[in-house]
Amino acid sequence: MDLALLSNVLVVNAGSSSLKLRLLDGADEVAESADLPEGRAGLDAMKELLDVWPSFAASGHRVVHGGSRFTTSVLVDDTVVGELGSLSALAPLHNPAAVAGIRALRRHRPVCPAVACFDTSFHSTLPDEAAVYGIPWQWTETLGVRRFGFHGLSYAGATRRAAWLLDREVSELKLVICHLGAGASLAAVAAGRSVDTTMGFTPLEGLIMATRSGSVDPGALLWIQEQLGLSPADMADRLDLSSGLLGMSGVSADMREVQSAAEQGQARAKLALAAYTHRVRASIAAMAASMGGVDAIIFTGGVGEASPQIRSLACQGLEFLGVELDEARN
Questions:
Q1: Residue 50 and residue 23: Cα distance in Å, rounded?
Q2: DSSP for 104-145, written as a single string
Q3: With a threshold of 0.85, does the pTM exceed it?
Q4: For 198-225, how does the pLDDT look when each residue is reduced to its tens digit (9 = 90+)?
Q5: Which residues are catalytic?
């Protein structure tokens, strides 16, 4: 269908640190845009904006975790909202915010159709060997524990954009996409399909992130929990909100502030920066290995797009993959 024939669509991205709104017109161009704070303040501001923005025919909502239940986009109704709420424990920084945004918009525009679009659905193509964990099979079969992967909406867009920039067919390309923001992950995308990724059952696995730990030896976590007498909720809080760049540097969860502190010689900030880029670099090589090569490395997300230093450090030592970074263009 010709996009020019479509009516306005509101895109809602209720993330872990912000509420982003984009109103797209019938030609798929951004007609209105706003980046709002997270939580109640953002939802209140959204209502005020929508009272003055042009009308729209439907809304699309980014939802991080669809679990095994949602492997494609769905039209939202009361049942879907309830099922999304039940998945909140799998993505505690994201799903509750997404559900709150959906509920708020449905109250404000009750007759306007809403569609939930899932970050996990892009990774439904993961081969079994990339998705399964080495755990008792009952946990896999009965509880559905597996690698889901996230940032799928970003990866899908980046894949299309990269093919356009390279003037190649998506079906020809092997891409390593680095989504580096407050949350961070990598994906191996071969012929437009996700074949490997760093995040897992929840958005906590993989890279070091702003406040999330990324991968940690589960044995270490069990030992820490026992030593400090932490409840599961306490442990989840520490790993989600007090770890990552914030926990390592002792400075900030904001990469810009960590980089500034590292430039001033603060040892923990320098270590945090080195550990962050080491994990990205190693994961790029792992993603390339899962495809048997790589045609392009893509950087997106707030950090990936805005920091030449991170891109440069992430590519150092990858010459064996054929990576040559033009520092001037970087």
A1: 10
A2: HHHHHSTTS-EEEEETTGGGGG--HHHH--SS-HHHHHHH--
A3: yes
A4: 999 999 999 999 999 999 999 999 999 9
A5: 119
